[in-house]
Each structure stands twice: as structure tokens, then as C-alpha cells.
Write a structure and sequence with these properties.
With about 325 residues, the protein is of the alpha/beta class. Helix content is about 30%, strand content about 25%. The longest helix has 23 residues. The chain is globular, with a radius of gyration of 19 Å. The two termini are about 15 Å apart.
């Protein structure tokens, strides 16, 4: 009987536990996967600890990403034995997710596992790494080049930030990391950051326009941090926004956009079309430094994911958490 983290609502609280489920307990699906590895993302931690607004129906198996082997399929283009990645499309929110030994999906949701990756390394990157690559692609498509100036990465010690620093530095960009955990400075420098700034310099209400500094920004924080990042982006620069760790609000004026021509580019990882997903995952496979991947990731089992979720929400977890669902 496959094991899974199961979330149930009890009044205003979430009951989260590792349970054994019968095959009949799982919703019907076009494709059934044997999950080998998943990961613990910010959304997963929110689902486990708070439930709403991430979880849209109960009970729920969380886990917005997973990698494994196709066990059965009714779709002609997906065959048993195929190795695939599943992330986004409401998995772990509206549909049972991948913090389980079995998961269902539509065939169109799946990305073939690139040859350079195995399931574990794919989940060492996971949705955070995939989102970081979507941000890098966004900067490139707006014409940002390594010689244009400094690129700011906020939430630098988190999953998206850690991978973004590694990817950008690997492509020759000068990366400045913003973090509230100064003890992580050696780690961030090892990933490729050339400078570290305290997140306090960005996290309080600022001016409509600040001194121009950043050629581009990758932001996973939102709120005042995103507003201040935009206010200090150089003329014609681009800010890729992909997260809301500080908040969903955006307390700023239009000044950076109409006086400096700054572009605020939204990055969505959930509903990105298949062609974009395949490009992002292949770029990750081609460009990820395997030594740095080991540095920025650590592994737990399903029970360990439950125990780690509150710490991730509190900003106490560095890098990426791989979940071995079979441990």
C-alpha cells in the first residue's frame, strides 16, 4: 500500500500525517506515476502548516512536484517505463500531489526527464529550480547581458534564490544576494554571489525612486522588497517577480516604469505551457553545476518533510529539500 502525506481539515486546523492508502483511494488519472522523489517547496509548507489558501479541496496530498516512472497510461504518447517530471498544473493544490509514493496526472502535464538528470537530481532542482530558470529566461528575453551590471537576487538563501544565483553566476552575471541570514554569506558566495546585502535594506517602505543600481532583479519575496527593487533598478532594466514570501501587496508608485522604463515581468510556474517547461528543464539539465547542486540540497523522508515545513515557513531552511518518498 503506497504511503503519502495526507492533509485533512479539522475545524480551523490542518491534520497532517503520513498514511498508507489503498490504490482505490487515489483519484482516477490518465497517467499513474511511481514517484521516486519529490521536494518540499514554500507552497508545500504552507499547505502542510496552514492549508489555505494553497489547498483548494480536502482531503489533499500535498507536493507540487515529483519525478518518477510511469506505471500505467491511457495516452498514446506516454508509455509505462517513461521517466518524467510532474510539477504545477494545480498538483498539491486542487489535485493530489507528489509527496506520496504514487501520483496521477494528465499526460500533457508531464515533462520527459532530461538524459542528464535522474529523479533525485531533478527534485534537487524541483519547482524552485525550474522557477529560477524561468526567471533567467525572462531576463534573457528582455536583453539583459552579463556585462550590463549587477543582478539582484532576493530571498537568496531559499530554493529559488539559491538556484538563481548559481545559474546567473554560471553564465557570467555579477550577482548580488539579498538575505536576512548573514551566517549564510559563505554559502551564497560559494554559489557565485559577488556581494551580500542585508534584506533590511529592501524590506521597509522606501522612496518612489532610489539610486539606480540593478541591471535586473530576480525577486521571490514581493511586497516592500519588490517595490524597493523596482525603485532601484537602472534605466531600461527588468525585474522578474515570482514569489510572495513577504506578502502579496505591492506598495509602490509607477515612477520606475514611466521615468526609467523599468519592466516588471511576472513569472508563473504553475500554468506555463509545455514548450516553455521543456526548455526550462533542458536548460537546467545542461547548465546546472552538479557540485553546487549537492551543496544547495539535502534529503529527508516523508515524515521529515512534515517536521521541516514550519521551519521552511520561518525562513530557517537553506536551499532545496529533496524528499525521498520511499525512505
Amino acid at each position: 500500500m503506497p504511503k503519502a502525506i495526507v492533509l485533512e481539515k479539522s475545524g480551523d486546523k490542518v491534520d497532517a500525517a503520513v498514511r498508507e492508502l489503498a490504490a482505490a483511494d487515489f483519484p482516477e488519472a490518465e497517467v499513474r506515476l511511481r514517484v521516486e522523489y519529490s521536494s518540499l517547496n514554500y507552497k508545500d509548507a504552507l499547505a502542510i502548516v496552514r492549508g489555505e489558501p494553497v489547498v483548494r479541496q480536502w482531503p489533499m496530498v500535498p507536493g507540487i512536484d515529483g519525478a518518477g516512472i510511469v506505471e500505467s497510461s491511457t495516452h498514446a504518447q506516454v508509455k509505462p517505463g517513461d521517466r518524467v517530471i510532474l510539477n504545477g498544473w494545480g498538483v498539491g493544490e486542487r489535485r493530489w500531489g507528489c509527496l506520496a509514493q504514487s501520483a496521477g496526472a494528465m499526460a500533457d502535464w508531464l515533462v520527459p526527464l532530461p538524459e542528464q538528470l535522474d529523479s533525485r537530481s531533478a527534485m534537487a532542482l524541483g519547482t524552485a529550480g525550474y522557477t529560477a530558470m524561468l526567471c533567467v529566461l525572462k531576463l534573457e528575453r528582455h536583453g539583459v547581458k552579463p556585462g550590463d551590471g549587477e543582478v539582484l537576487v532576493t530571498g537568496a538563501a531559499g530554493g529559488v534564490g539559491s538556484v538563481a544565483i548559481s545559474l546567473l553566476a554560471g553564465r557570467g552575471y555579477t550577482v548580488v544576494a539579498s538575505t536576512g541570514r548573514q551566517a549564510e554569506a559563505p554559502y551564497l558566495k560559494r554559489l557565485g554571489a559577488s556581494d551580500i546585502i542585508d534584506r533590511k535594506t529592501l524590506s521597509e517602505r522606501g522612496k518612489p525612486l532610489e539610486r539606480e543600481r540593478w541591471a535586473a532583479v530576480v525577486d521571490s519575496v514581493g511586497s516592500h522588497t519588490l517595490a524597493n527593487a523596482c525603485a532601484s533598478t537602472r534605466y531600461g532594466g527588468v525585474v522578474a517577480a515570482c514569489g510572495l514570501a513577504q506578502g502579496m501587496d505591492l506598495p509602490m508608485t509607477v515612477a520606475p516604469f514611466i521615468l526609467r522604463g523599468v519592466t516588471l515581468a511576472g513569472v508563473d510556474s504553475v500554468m506555463a505551457p509545455p514548450a516553455v517547461r521543456k526548455e526550462a528543464w533542458q536548460r537546467l539539465a545542461d547548465e546546472t553545476d552538479r557540485d553546487l547542486l549537492a551543496l544547495l540540497s539535502h534529503e529527508v523522508g516523508l515524515q521529515g518533510a512534515l517536521e521541516l515545513a514550519p521551519r521552511l515557513l520561518a525562513g530557517e531552511v537553506r536551499g532545496r529539500t529533496i524528499v525521498n518518498v520511499n525512505a
